[in-house]
Amino acid sequence: MISMIYACDENGGIGYRNKLPWPHIKEDMVHFMNTTKNKIVVMGSNTWFSLPGAPLKNRINVVLSSKAIDGPDHVLNKSPTEVIEYLQKLYNKEIVIIGGKFLYNVYKDVVDVIYLTEISGKYPADTYMNNFNILEKFEMVEEQEYNNIEIPIKTQKWVRHEKFN
Protein backbone atom coordinates (compact mmCIF):
# COMPACT_ATOMS: atom_id res chain seq x y z
CA MET A 1 0.00 0.00 0.00
CA ILE A 2 1.12 3.56 -0.73
CA SER A 3 -0.04 6.47 1.40
CA MET A 4 0.85 10.06 2.15
CA ILE A 5 0.70 12.07 5.32
CA TYR A 6 0.64 15.82 5.74
CA ALA A 7 -0.74 18.59 7.92
CA CYS A 8 -2.08 21.93 6.77
CA ASP A 9 -3.62 25.03 8.26
CA GLU A 10 -6.94 26.61 7.24
CA ASN A 11 -5.28 28.22 4.19
CA GLY A 12 -3.65 24.96 3.07
CA GLY A 13 -0.25 26.07 4.36
CA ILE A 14 2.13 23.16 4.90
CA GLY A 15 5.51 24.84 5.25
CA TYR A 16 7.39 28.02 6.00
CA ARG A 17 11.13 28.29 5.38
CA ASN A 18 11.42 24.49 5.32
CA LYS A 19 9.70 24.08 8.70
CA LEU A 20 6.12 23.63 9.88
CA PRO A 21 4.34 27.02 9.97
CA TRP A 22 2.65 26.49 13.35
CA PRO A 23 4.10 26.01 16.84
CA HIS A 24 4.87 22.46 18.01
CA ILE A 25 1.65 20.44 18.50
CA LYS A 26 2.38 17.30 20.52
CA GLU A 27 -0.81 15.50 19.42
CA ASP A 28 0.06 15.98 15.75
CA MET A 29 3.61 14.69 16.28
CA VAL A 30 2.26 11.63 18.13
CA HIS A 31 -0.22 11.02 15.30
CA PHE A 32 2.61 11.28 12.73
CA MET A 33 4.81 8.91 14.74
CA ASN A 34 2.05 6.32 15.24
CA THR A 35 0.93 6.50 11.61
CA THR A 36 4.42 6.08 10.12
CA LYS A 37 6.04 3.75 12.68
CA ASN A 38 7.48 0.51 11.24
CA LYS A 39 6.79 1.71 7.68
CA ILE A 40 8.85 3.09 4.81
CA VAL A 41 8.91 6.90 4.80
CA VAL A 42 9.76 8.54 1.47
CA MET A 43 10.79 12.18 1.35
CA GLY A 44 12.60 14.77 -0.70
CA SER A 45 15.94 16.16 0.38
CA ASN A 46 14.45 19.38 1.82
CA THR A 47 12.21 17.32 4.09
CA TRP A 48 15.20 15.19 5.08
CA PHE A 49 17.24 18.26 6.02
CA SER A 50 14.31 19.68 8.01
CA LEU A 51 14.39 16.67 10.37
CA PRO A 52 16.04 17.11 13.76
CA GLY A 53 19.45 15.74 12.79
CA ALA A 54 18.82 12.01 12.56
CA PRO A 55 16.72 9.48 10.66
CA LEU A 56 13.19 8.94 11.93
CA LYS A 57 13.39 6.04 14.39
CA ASN A 58 11.58 2.75 13.77
CA ARG A 59 11.09 3.55 10.08
CA ILE A 60 12.94 2.87 6.85
CA ASN A 61 14.05 6.36 5.75
CA VAL A 62 14.22 6.92 1.97
CA VAL A 63 15.31 10.21 0.41
CA LEU A 64 14.80 10.94 -3.27
CA SER A 65 17.76 12.98 -4.45
CA SER A 66 20.34 13.17 -7.20
CA LYS A 67 22.97 14.11 -4.59
CA ALA A 68 24.75 11.92 -2.04
CA ILE A 69 23.26 12.33 1.44
CA ASP A 70 24.48 10.72 4.67
CA GLY A 71 22.04 9.21 7.14
CA PRO A 72 18.98 7.72 5.45
CA ASP A 73 18.60 4.01 4.77
CA HIS A 74 18.33 4.68 1.02
CA VAL A 75 19.08 7.63 -1.25
CA LEU A 76 17.41 7.01 -4.58
CA ASN A 77 17.78 8.84 -7.87
CA LYS A 78 15.03 7.05 -9.78
CA SER A 79 11.72 7.92 -11.39
CA PRO A 80 8.67 7.95 -9.07
CA THR A 81 7.47 4.65 -10.52
CA GLU A 82 10.91 3.03 -10.18
CA VAL A 83 11.12 4.15 -6.54
CA ILE A 84 7.86 2.40 -5.64
CA GLU A 85 8.74 -0.75 -7.59
CA TYR A 86 12.20 -0.90 -5.98
CA LEU A 87 10.86 -0.47 -2.43
CA GLN A 88 8.03 -2.97 -2.96
CA LYS A 89 10.56 -5.59 -4.12
CA LEU A 90 12.76 -5.02 -1.06
CA TYR A 91 10.11 -4.70 1.64
CA ASN A 92 6.63 -5.89 2.46
CA LYS A 93 5.62 -2.66 4.20
CA GLU A 94 3.41 0.34 3.65
CA ILE A 95 5.16 3.17 1.82
CA VAL A 96 4.31 6.60 3.25
CA ILE A 97 5.14 9.78 1.34
CA ILE A 98 5.99 12.40 4.00
CA GLY A 99 6.90 15.40 1.85
CA GLY A 100 7.54 17.79 0.45
CA LYS A 101 4.99 19.35 -1.82
CA PHE A 102 6.71 18.17 -5.01
CA LEU A 103 6.49 14.51 -3.93
CA TYR A 104 2.89 14.93 -2.78
CA ASN A 105 1.99 16.15 -6.25
CA VAL A 106 4.04 13.42 -7.97
CA TYR A 107 2.42 10.59 -5.99
CA LYS A 108 -1.13 11.93 -5.45
CA ASP A 109 -2.54 9.81 -8.29
CA VAL A 110 -1.09 6.52 -7.02
CA VAL A 111 -1.62 6.69 -3.26
CA ASP A 112 -4.34 4.54 -1.72
CA VAL A 113 -4.66 6.47 1.56
CA ILE A 114 -4.11 10.03 2.72
CA TYR A 115 -3.56 10.83 6.39
CA LEU A 116 -4.37 14.50 6.84
CA THR A 117 -4.14 16.69 9.92
CA GLU A 118 -6.11 19.93 9.76
CA ILE A 119 -4.53 22.58 11.98
CA SER A 120 -6.87 25.28 13.31
CA GLY A 121 -5.80 28.79 12.42
CA LYS A 122 -3.86 30.53 9.69
CA TYR A 123 -0.08 30.79 9.82
CA PRO A 124 2.58 32.44 7.64
CA ALA A 125 3.45 29.93 4.93
CA ASP A 126 5.38 29.79 1.69
CA THR A 127 4.28 26.28 0.68
CA TYR A 128 0.64 25.28 0.21
CA MET A 129 -1.44 22.23 -0.67
CA ASN A 130 -4.64 22.45 -2.63
CA ASN A 131 -6.71 19.96 -0.63
CA PHE A 132 -9.56 19.99 -3.13
CA ASN A 133 -7.30 18.77 -5.95
CA ILE A 134 -5.65 16.19 -3.70
CA LEU A 135 -8.77 14.84 -1.97
CA GLU A 136 -11.31 14.91 -4.80
CA LYS A 137 -10.89 11.18 -5.53
CA PHE A 138 -10.92 10.13 -1.88
CA GLU A 139 -13.51 9.69 0.84
CA MET A 140 -12.95 10.31 4.54
CA VAL A 141 -13.30 7.13 6.58
CA GLU A 142 -11.96 8.31 9.96
CA GLU A 143 -11.76 11.59 11.81
CA GLN A 144 -10.63 12.45 15.31
CA GLU A 145 -10.91 15.93 16.78
CA TYR A 146 -8.56 17.32 19.41
CA ASN A 147 -10.38 20.40 20.69
CA ASN A 148 -9.08 20.65 24.26
CA ILE A 149 -5.54 21.61 23.31
CA GLU A 150 -3.89 24.98 22.68
CA ILE A 151 -4.17 24.66 18.88
CA PRO A 152 -7.12 22.38 18.00
CA ILE A 153 -6.52 19.81 15.25
CA LYS A 154 -8.45 17.16 13.32
CA THR A 155 -6.73 13.98 12.15
CA GLN A 156 -8.36 12.31 9.18
CA LYS A 157 -7.90 9.19 7.11
CA TRP A 158 -8.98 9.39 3.47
CA VAL A 159 -9.23 6.30 1.23
CA ARG A 160 -9.27 6.38 -2.55
CA HIS A 161 -12.86 6.02 -3.67
CA GLU A 162 -13.54 2.72 -5.47
CA LYS A 163 -14.76 4.40 -8.66
CA PHE A 164 -11.28 5.99 -9.06
CA ASN A 165 -9.27 2.76 -8.78
Describe this structure as you would to a colleague.
- It is a single chain.
- This protein has 165 residues and is of the alpha/beta class.
- It has a single domain, classed as Dihydrofolate Reductase, subunit A, CATH 3.40.430.10.
- The protein is built from 5 helices and 10 strands.
- It has helices spanning 26-36, 45-50, 80-90, 101-107, 131-135, and strands at residues 2-8, 13-15, 40-44, 60-64, 74-76, 95-99, 113-119, 127-128, 138-146, 153-160.
- An 8-stranded mixed beta sheet has the order 5-4-3-6-1-7-10-9, sandwiched between helices.
- It starts with a strand and ends in a 5-residue tail after the last strand.
Q: How would you sum up the major sheet?
A: 8 strands, mixed
Radius of gyration over alpha carbons?
A: 15 Å
CATH-level-2 architecture: 3-Layer(aba) Sandwich
Could you give the order of the helices and strands?
EEHEHEEHEHEEHEE
> How many E strands?
10
CATH class placement? Alpha Beta
What fraction of the residues are assigned to beta strands by DSSP?
Answer: 25-35%
Helix content: 10-25%
Overall pLDDT level: 93
Shape: globular
Structural class: alpha/beta
Taking strands numbered 1, 2, ... along the chain, how are they ordered across the largest sheet? 5-4-3-6-1-7-10-9
> Looking at CATH, which topology would you report?
Dihydrofolate Reductase, subunit A
Number of domains: 1
Helices, by number, come to: 5
